[in-house]
Design goal:
The chain has ten helices and ten strands. By secondary structure, it is of the alpha+beta class. It is globular.
Length: 264
């Protein structure tokens, strides 16, 4: 077992794809990260041996070493997933696969009960592309390049002046109602594949697309303003093209990961 509170474990944890991406959020944007107390368990035996420590974590993801291709996500089927069943699936897919456990600062929400999912695609020193999906969606669609409902592009030197009054002047894309109907149906089918009843999902995802709510952008503006002042820090760390990805928890934007832009 590896834990973020053990300094000697951190370098080992940085050798895993998704764990590294979550640790980057804590490093660069700790004030908005939803994640605390990140822990890696490497096997069912490791999990059971440390069960008293592990049993109360509120979040989980599967992961593997960065020397291998990133594992396909094993999608969560609810707020309290069956860790042992997920582990069996992880090990079937990749013998080096692990489960990353972590605590969340917010009460976990259902996947259909969020205002938006957002990618902040950063080209350091050049500009920022924001891609977002609306109510009933989360960060999955934009992080995997499956869908987007709105997109905005902001030149680097204008990051400091972005606010709710001028933000939509930077919009470069808005989905049509016809395309949104397809997007909505795809989202419903995905959520239903996680054993969520159609009648629950149908009530949560709007049938007509409306602009993403202003409250979604409040925390994102804070991130944008901070980005400009971190240009040298990002460049020295080799982060020239990267993505900050997350979704809304209640009225707060919570970024889960910072990953290289080739995954955008």
């Amino acid at each position: 077992m590896l834990n973020i509170n053990n300094q000697e474990d951190i370098n080992k944890m940085m050798k895993y794809h998704r764990t590294r991406d979550m640790l980057r959020v804590l490093l660069y944007f700790p004030e908005v990260s939803p994640i605390r107390n990140i822990t890696i368990v490497t096997s069912i035996e490791d999990y059971l041996d440390n069960y008293e420590f592990c049993k109360n974590f509120t979040g989980e993801r599967n992961d593997t070493l960065i020397t291998k291709p990133s594992m396909k996500s094993i999608e969560g089927r609810g707020i309290k997933p069956d860790i042992l069943s997920i582990f069996k699936e992880v090990k079937k897919n990749d013998p080096d696969g692990v489960i990353v456990l972590f605590d969340l600062i917010d009460k976990p929400s259902e996947r259909y009960d969020r205002y938006a999912g957002v990618n902040i695609c950063v080209s350091t020193g050049k500009g920022v592309l924001i891609e977002a999906v609306g109510q009933g969606f989360d960060g999955r669609e934009v992080s995997k390049g499956l869908d987007r409902h709105e997109a905005f592009y902001i030149p680097w030197l204008e990051l400091r002046t972005v606010n709710i009054e001028n933000f939509r002047s930077y919009r470069i894309y808005k989905i049509s109602q016809e395309d949104y109907a397809v997007s909505r149906n795809n989202r419903i089918e995905f959520l239903h594949s996680l054993k969520i009843p159609y009648e629950v999902i149908d009530d949560k995802i709007p049938k007509i697309y409306n602009d993403i709510l202003d409250l979604v952008w409040v925390d994102i503006f804070k991130i944008l303003k901070k980005l400009e002042g971190m240009e040298e820090e990002f460049l020295s760390a080799g982060l020239r093209e990267f993505v900050i990805n997350g979704h809304m928890e209640g009225k707060r934007f919570r970024p889960w990961q910072i990953y290289d832009k080739h995954r955008c």
